């Protein structure tokens, strides 16, 4: 199931590095190709909260195997697509099946394993989440270079077949309750779909459309608020809700959800900022960006056993405080970023942030479900995964807005300071003008002013990246503060499980 989860989560990141090749391959415009990513996320988010109900009704194995079969078929269909509408349609179905493959893994880790082994299982699940976001773009770039962009989707077929066999053979650990098919809350389902689709679209497209200046974004925001409130009311009032909100009665779960939201912002936000900085400011190639970004993934991979041991040995609250403090400190290093930063300057930031995020994520997820009854674990898993993904979407939307707004603000400040009244600025402009004159430029003064404007814009962008790193750091410090309000829980120890039925 973990292999399937990795495949589903990787499929959003692996495509990111090859959108240009896909665009030329199917003759799409820039707006159309962005929907290859957006539609996948929209579909994924809608199905996540519903997986708990589906697995209760049909059983985990049936739902998971069915989702993987659908994912394999739609992956092949996306890879074979020759037009934009076909690709977007199949990509939506692929995202729907992918979203159904993610929450059951955490629920299984927290219920099938004996209490003393759940932390180890949680470490593996957390590792998959973090690795998929860091190695995806690198893997996608290499696959496209070696074969073609279509293999970004075809690669899912042999892996999916393996998952179908293994899960179908070994994952018979619970039974469904077919009686749940009677009295399905269709109104709740419609409200949830409209709420999540509207919210995710606003988060994905809001920054590029100047938020509420765009009529569609404004009305979708209103729609999301109204349907979100109505959905929550419906789930509290209906006798058989499709998404149980009972886990929120546990204060630790409610606080853990907030911390999971922050780890989503930190996890996806960090992997969003650095490739843009390295590509736009430093001019790194895709391969150089991928090599630099791999540090985070490797740090998390190497540190995952250490993180698991720390979580088992310490009070979960201490683990959360240490994890969020490490992540906040490391990200805060980025506030001093300059246009000279490269691999080694980002090394410490990424390595410490990787360990901190891993530690905080494992501890906060463990804290969230530690005092919940097993019967609520499936519902809790769907809510945790949804919250982490929404946190990532919120983080990317806010970071995009911060970069755009703060770049403009810093540019105005720098341009004002670099007026002709400033002796240093005047000397720099004179020097550039002389260089252009010596080079035989037709209008040396105009070209010199344009070059100076470019230099100011680059410095403004660097300062904006510093502001974005500061935003992420503040989020981690706030999450650290929430850890002090959680109740102490103990990771239960129990007898080793007895082998059953030849397994």
Automatic annotation (TrEMBL):
InterPro entries: EmrB-like, MFS, MFS_dom, MFS_trans_sf. The keyword Repressor does not apply. One of its GO terms (molecular function) is transmembrane transporter activity. It is found in: Cell membrane. Its main location: membrane. Belongs to the major facilitator superfamily. EmrB family. This is MFS transporter. It comes from Phenylobacterium kunshanense.
